[in-house]
Amino acid sequence: MMGVENVKVLGILGAHRADGVTAQLLQAVLKGAAASADTELVNLNDYELRPDHDSQPNADLDALEAKLMAADVWVLAAPTYLGSLSGVMKNFCDCFRGRIARFNSVGEAVPDRFKNKHYVTITDCYAGGIENYLTGVTDATFKTLDKFLTMGGLIKLREIVVTKTWGMQTITAAKQAECERVGARAA
């Protein structure tokens, strides 16, 4: 149709390795989305993430904010380390919290310019599937990301988890296909 812009899907990698399991999961989601959407992958390690201070905005946060504003769907991918969100992604959330929402006079978050955008979250961990199910190893990762994103008024589409990643070099064909399906639906 004339004049209709493509959906934009932004992948945000909050992992130490740009080629690890977490990155592969994110790339698979973006591959699925690319059939009908414009996609971009952002590696948070490429940015100097520090909070804005004393009315001095961080230029890297400005650049990320522009990318997030332009995107319709955000796909955040971070491994679970020691039962919690990776430090790379947590640092992004901490530094960006003053931009994800407005805060009223008593410090309550009020969704603002990102309201009604959509998101998918991805994590992986060394724990086995049964252990993760019974003990909730990855729960804290998803809860932290959900709290951060819903504070901004974003709407969750899906979460993806891979367990038993110790020694894993490549995601399985089944997980690749699942991620591509999620990406296609998200777009």
Could you tell me how far the N terminus lies from the C terminus, measured between alpha carbons in angstroms?
17 Å
**CATH homologous superfamily title:** Flavodoxin domain
Estimate the helix proportion, in percent: 25-40%
| Oligomeric grouping of the chains | single chain
Number of discrete helical segments: 6
CATH topology: Rossmann fold
- Give the count of structural domains: 1
Query: What is the overall pLDDT average?
Result: 94
**CATH architect. name:** 3-Layer(aba) Sandwich
CATH C-level class is: Alpha Beta
Strand segment tally = 9
Ranges where pLDDT stays below 50 over 5 or more residues in a row are none
Form type: globular
Biggest sheet statistics:
5 strands, parallel
Report strand %.
15-25%
